[in-house]
Design goal:
By secondary structure, the chain is α+β, with helices and mostly antiparallel strands. The protein folds into three domains: 26 residues; 333 residues, Beta-galactosidase, Chain A, domain 5 (Distorted Sandwich); 256 residues, no CATH class. Helix content is 40%, strand content 19%. The protein has 19 helices and 21 strands. Helix 16 runs parallel beside helix 18.
Length: 710
């Protein structure tokens, strides 16, 4: 038994020594052999020469792309991060004869968009008309539109203090032909396992003259930049990668002192989910709330992380972007798959979209610069070979907010036009405004013509309103008597008033009903003029911009609520409003009515403060509308509502024996329209006014007969 145990022990020990020497020690405890001094010096020199060669190739101005073809052998444990030179390239042109609608400035830093300018001479910078308006890229921060982060590459760049959004990409190639121009950037992961290519393509139209101007107005493809992100697996293993992409940054916010429309984030979805609009001050509030909760100012990365998890939209979007009063910058995925696949949780490109705060305004949160970021679903790349590359394409619209440009696919961005409650009316008014302009009228005359057309079509409603007002004026003494008789009993007063109106066949809301019918038209017209980009920089007399206040001159001090600009048109508008009230409102019959009139005057003055910041085009509309109202009510006899000193009216009462009508007395007022033949539209107006007066006279006769019988 003892011999067996000894034999087992010896065999086990021998087996363990063999395993240790052949397998365990070399694998887990390898022997570190010191190289000879000469060999070590040769190895160090070779490594230094290799790194110097790589740096020389990258920084060589004569051959900036030489490193792209190089495949240096590097130690497995060390990654060499290549730093490509900083380069800029412009797609398109600001030359109106170039055939482009945009000039897109690209930068190799993050392979992103530095800025986007409009080519049309119509869109000059408000502060310097020698420059074209820059719609995207108006921010001092390093954030750039379409900068893209890949987590798998950013981890490798982290040791060098860089990210894929801050490092320089290689400008791999550019091209320009009759159809447009393009530029391609690429970046390979330091471990050579992944390559990202980002290409930008801008279309060109070979048009000139009127055809080119029409394309600037009506062709949305003219303002759409196509962006493609190609992800290629360079390794022999399957990879799953994710990316984040930055939306439009620094969208132009102009006329900041007077505008009522600031940067808004818009997003609409393809699965029926209700679209969302998020204002700049709302995004600022999101960040402020979390900073107050944590008691510290958050760096941008932590802000992004919070907004990504707490304020995200997870439905597949049709478009998302930022707009201001007259311009929009929108992104739409160019995915040809059916909507069911595009919106499926596992197969949609973008897993979530969320708002971000680019630059907070320390004084006015509404003026903060906001944008969106898009986080992708995992993208599975097959090993190197077939199926190792996947491309995601996006359309980037940058241009004026016109229905012809925003209504077509892929955007279909009706929400961005922001026509409000009566959108169909506003669209119609906008169409009529453009139609008058195409007839050759300048825009201020187009506004006046549109006002005349609308008010002329509403004349039948205005006539009924005037007749109702005349009847109510005739009953004013009776109403005053009833108020005095039932001063202490409101219920009896209400019944007596209703009985009086019923007896004389008067609808108490008859004068208000036409106003309610007119409201959609007025609001639609107001909205159309407030959002008409074509009014921007249209001139009239001293006015340089019909889309902003007329600003006759700049005050040396700031007036509370009004600012520094002194404008004339708001004063004219309020003056006409007060004139209408004085001319057409009957005199106050009691203290309560007098107080109401005073309140109306105060409200009119308050409206003047609001009009101070409204566009000059809107003021022209209200001035033209007020002048039309004054002329219309005068022609309809409304001017006789206010008695004039030195004049009296005597009504000739026929008795029960039906005697012939007496001749007018000396102090009797005879209608100026009698016996006068006025042809055309004015004749119809006077006839309508005479009918209104006749009906009022008949009502007075009935009241007078009843008084005599008593």
């Amino acid at each position: 038994m003892e011999n067996r145990r000894l034999f087992t022990f010896l065999m086990t020990s021998l087996l363990f020594m063999i395993l240790w020497g052949q397998y365990l020690q070399p694998k887990f405890f390898p022997e570190k052999k010191k190289p000879k001094v000469a060999d070590q010096q040769i190895a160090d020199a070779a490594k230094a020469d290799l790194q110097q060669a790589i740096v020389a190739e990258v920084s060589d101005p004569a051959n900036p792309h030489a490193s792209a073809d190089a495949d240096p052998v590097q130690p497995v444990a060390e990654l060499i991060i290549l730093d490509y030179p900083s380069q800029e390239f412009t797609l398109g042109s600001i030359d109106p004869k170039s055939g482009y609608a945009l000039a897109v400035d690209l930068t190799s830093t993050g392979a992103a968009i530095e800025s986007v300018r409009l080519t049309s001479p119509q869109f000059r910078d408000l502060r310097d008309e020698t420059l074209q308006a820059r719609i995207v890229g108006n921010t001092p921060t390093p954030d750039r539109t379409f900068s893209t982060a890949f987590a798998v590459i950013d981890k490798q760049l982290e040791k060098a203090g860089q990210t894929l959004e801050t490092t320089n990409w290689k400008l791999a190639g550019t091209d320009e032909n009759e159809e447009g121009c393009s530029a391609t950037f690429e970046y390979e992961a330091p471990d050579k396992s992944l390559r990202i290519r980002k290409s930008y393509t801008l279309p060109k139209l070979n048009l000139t003259g009127k055809a080119l101007e029409k394309a600037w107005r009506d062709d949305p493809s003219f303002y759409t930049l196509q962006v493609a992100i190609e992800m290629t697996n360079l390794s022999d293993k399957q990879q799953s990668i994710e990316y984040e992409m930055q939306g439009p940054v620094g969208v132009l916010l102009e006329n900041q002192e007077h505008t009522s429309k600031y940067r808004d984030i818009h997003i609409e979805f393809i699965d029926g989910t209700k679209g969302a609009t998020t204002t700049a001050d709302t995004v600022r509030k999101y960040v402020n709330d979390v900073e107050e909760e944590k008691g510290q100012t958050l760096p941008q990365k932590e802000q992004f992380d919070f907004l990504r998890e707490e304020k995200e939209w997870t439905s597949a979007f049709r478009y998302a972007g930022v707009d201001v009063q007259f311009f929009a910058a929108l992104i739409s995925p160019l995915d040809d798959r059916p909507d069911e696949i595009r919106s499926d949780v596992s197969t949609k490109w973008i897993e979530r979209t969320f708002p971000v705060l680019i630059l907070p305004d320390p004084v006015e949160p509404r003026m903060s610069d906001v944008s969106i970021r898009m986080a992708s679903n995992p993208v599975v790349l097959q090993p190197k070979g077939d199926g190792d590359s996947i491309t995601h394409k996006f359309a980037f619209f940058v241009g004026p907010k016109r229905r012809e440009l925003l209504d077509p696919a892929p955007m279909s961005a009706g929400q961005v036009l922001n026509y409000g409650w009566f959108g169909f009316v506003a669209r119609g008014m906008h169409y009529l405004l453009d139609t008058f302009y195409t007839f050759g009228l300048p825009y201020f005359l187009a506004i006046i013509s549109l006002t005349i057309l609308v008010r002329g079509l509403m004349f039948p409603i205005s006539r009924k309103q005037a007749i109702s007002a005349a009847r109510m004026k005739e009953l004013q003494p009776k109403l005053t008597e009833l108020k005095a008789k039932y001063a202490d009993d409101r219920e009896k007063l209400a019944k007596a008033q209703m009985e009086l109106w019923r007896k004389h066949k008067i609808n108490p809301i008859g004068g208000c009903l036409p106003l309610f019918l007119q409201m959609p038209i007025f609001i639609g017209l107001y909205t159309a003029l407030n959002s008409a980009v074509d009014l921007r920089q249209q001139k009239l007399l001293w006015i340089n911009n019909l889309a902003g206040p007329d600003a006759l001159f700049r005050l040396p001090f700031n007036v509370p609520f009004l600012g520094y600009d002194f404008s004339v048109l708001p004063l004219c508008t309020v003056g006409l409003f007060l004139t209408q009230q004085k001319m057409f409102m009957p005199p106050a019959t009691d203290e309560q009515q007098e107080a109401q009139y005073k309140m109306m005057n105060i409200m009119t003055l308050f409206m003047g403060v609001m009009f101070w910041h409204q566009p000059a085009g809107l003021c022209i509309y209200f001035i033209a509308s007020s002048l039309w109202s004054i002329a219309e009510r005068k022609l309809l006899g409304a001017g006789s509502m206010t008695p004039t000193s030195g004049a009296s009216v005597e009504v000739i009462e026929p008795d029960n024996n039906s005697k012939p009508a007496a001749k007018p007395k000396a102090n009797q007022v005879v209608s100026p329209a009698e016996g006068r033949k006025v042809p055309g539209f004015l004749k119809k107006l006077l006839d309508a006014a005479q009918n209104a007066r006749d009906q009022a006279d008949q009502q007075r006769e009935k009241e007078s007969r009843k008084g005599k019988k008593r």
